[in-house]
Amino acid sequence: MPPMPLEATLVGSYDYGLVALSVLIAMLASYAALDLAGRITVSRGRLRIMWLMGGPAAMGLGIWSMHYIGMLAYSLPVPVSTIIGPRFWCLSWRRC
């Protein structure tokens, strides 16, 4: 396969402020999940179940947010649009 011509390549750039925000969100989400995991050991009954559900929810939301903001930090020299509807359909129906 011949190499791709230089005219066909797209050179992207990053907004370092958004990259830093993405890393900060990842750190806060992991801290929250670990803190909630620590609360499981001292809790009993329904409260323990709430902590068991809260930890993965915090981590999952943090990972999703980190990746979404990380994608927003990357920009290309061509117009790129995001269709929000299918993302919410995927979240609600879990069929992605």
Question: Would you kindly provide a written description of the structure presented here, covering whatever features stand out?
Answer:
- The protein is mainly α and 96 residues long.
- The protein has one domain.
- It is 66% helix and 4% strand.
- A two-stranded antiparallel ribbon has the order 1-2.
- The two termini are 33 Å apart.
Instruction: Tell me the number of strands.
Output: 2
> How would you spell out the order of helices and strands?
EHHEH
In whole angstroms, the N-to-C terminal distance is: 33 Å
Shape: elongated
Number of domains: 1
Mean of all residue-level pLDDT scores = 83
Question: How many helices does DSSP assign?
Answer: 3
- The strands making up the biggest β-sheet line up spatially as 1-2
Uncertain spans: none
Structural class: mainly alpha
Question: Which percent band covers the strand fraction?
Answer: under 5%
Characterize the largest beta sheet: strand count, sense, and whether it forms a barrel: 2 strands, antiparallel
What Rg is obtained from the alpha carbons, in whole angstroms? 19 Å
Give the % helix: 55-70%
